[in-house]
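Record type: ASSEMBLY
Status: queued
Input:
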Amino acid sequence: MIKKYLLAPGPTQVPPEVLLRMAYPMVHHRAPDFGPVMEEISEGLKWLFQTRNDVLIMASSGTGAMEGSVSNFLSPGDKVITVNGGKFGERWGKICKAYGVNAIEIKVEWGESVDPAVIAGHLERDPSIKGVYVQASETSTGVAHDVKAIGEIVKSYPGTIFVVDAITALGVFDIRPDEWGIDILITGSQKALMLPPGLAFAGVNDKAWKMNETARCSRFYFDFKKERENLRKNTSAYTPAISLIIGLQYVLKMLKEEGLENIFARHKLLAAATREGIKGFGLELLPKSAPSDAVTAVKAPEGFDGQQIYKRLREIYGITAAGGQDHLKGKIFRISHMGYCDKFDVIIAISGVEMVLKEMGYPGELGSGVRRVEEVFIKD
Amino acid sequence: MIKKYLLAPGPTQVPPEVLLRMAYPMVHHRAPDFGPVMEEISEGLKWLFQTRNDVLIMASSGTGAMEGSVSNFLSPGDKVITVNGGKFGERWGKICKAYGVNAIEIKVEWGESVDPAVIAGHLERDPSIKGVYVQASETSTGVAHDVKAIGEIVKSYPGTIFVVDAITALGVFDIRPDEWGIDILITGSQKALMLPPGLAFAGVNDKAWKMNETARCSRFYFDFKKERENLRKNTSAYTPAISLIIGLQYVLKMLKEEGLENIFARHKLLAAATREGIKGFGLELLPKSAPSDAVTAVKAPEGFDGQQIYKRLREIYGITAAGGQDHLKGKIFRISHMGYCDKFDVIIAISGVEMVLKEMGYPGELGSGVRRVEEVFIKD
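Status: finished
Output:
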């Protein structure tokens, strides 16, 4: 018997009480008892997103909200900036290409965060740029981009929207769209929201809605305007993912009970402890700076295959972490501490890494990482 | 205490064992244990779709697969035929419009089925028509279109694909895409598949894939080619709706155990019994011919409001049926007998209708509908 520990950066662990809640008998989304559920989650999402604006809900994975953030606000031929500092930043560019949108891609070495001054420079040189598309937390590298600083810059361009993919950031660390000038903020259900995948969200402000009026890219299922009209009637344009919505209602209650400040503090502590544990065992982090509090990307030590570490964690110890993607494959492994995670998830992760690497012949001292984790926790 | 009975044409009842199965702890979709699940459901879907072709799986409601059936196979300016015999037929036209596709809409009175000869006529006059978009079962009216006869017609046009929305037909009655010349066959999870909403499916054949090569409509999330490439590696382009996939794996086992012939026979019997029960109580069906075995649309008797009937069924008896949509609102109500339904679901529905209408002053004889239902069942 090997117990299973899901420590990947999405899907993440779903609390058993949420799993059981979603086993609630099917209800009809047009029946009157579903309206109050929608109303409640609508309010709850505004709270979670720290926004006064509507937060749209779609039945899709997070990529659907990414696509909609392009197709609902731009026209073919429009120029935007995308930041490619990892797999998901790269995706912005692919989506733009699919819609005939001209993306100026700012390439950032995977593992580093974008320099806001570079974005400022582009905007100064070309104020016709219609949007800036960034990740708040780049899942593939464990790096956070400084969306507050970027928001400050984009704010002063009335014809430019700032779009932030917060799929592994929202509910992890503080993001204030209304204060920071984030015009579209998106997330998905399977990360800090502690739900299975299948829901995508987008908080959209008036600056973005204004651009929606003239945007000519094709769209139908991800029609944000139609979703907003429906949301305001406490319903949805198309059949919603009802069981996930029921789960969301419950999860929002759990999150509210904990409180945003505590949620952010918990993630900060777990992330710090993970990083200390990794370093305590003599390993190196991928991010040179600005590590995300959602996921920690660790360099595989010289001569060790990151995919082997990931594989052995799973096969020998039942821990599902994540490997590296594309050119980082084999070079890193990633451990999530996002969502339904607490102190012992970190202990498990670091302990698992210690045992696996030791078995692979790595010279680190067993327990040296765990000790540092414990030190962080008892100091807290 | 009022027990709840979900007899709407989607979402439909989900068997309790499936609900609990979906409470399975979250697994990671890129971890090796998920591949075999995908492989199994891939095979199971081919069986259910009665096709040799790949059946794509998307995290969305059925409308996503409808949209993808347009955007992946057509270019702006292309001409297609859409059959509008109800709310969902009308949707084809809206999707085409969103993509700049020129839809020749064949309007059919809501409650009637399309005359295949009309489609043949259009194709004869204009062989540049690239596609014919039809519902196998129009959920809003309870009418089945003769997709076998239409397929025979479209088959002989090598540059025209036949696209069938079988969202309330697949797993209800016999549809044979490979034999009947259906090039794209789509469905959703929340109907005869006895699952919550959140998954959409599309079976696509080579004739359609050939059109995909030159189709220039924008698409990203619903990129069928990318999904096929991933499906063949037992994975998906984007994070799948994992809990629903786990449920699907279980549901496919249940359906296989029952067998397609038995599934179709069960739906045929339940539909026939429902129709007899309705007529036995003196009510009239909306469909003049070709009623769908998925859902029965009933005319509200002269002087009675269909919405009131629907409302009272729910409030007094706990039965969630459905009302009419758009101009049929108030004129009809609809009872589903699709998916996880058996004989007593029909008894409950007819009995509920009898009591509600009697209470509203309708002169029918209590029990007269139920009697006819029982007669149908004991003769079977």
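Annotation: Chain B has 14 helices and 15 strands.
Annotation: The domain at 5-11+259-379 of chain B is CATH 3.90.1150.10 (Aspartate Aminotransferase, domain 1).
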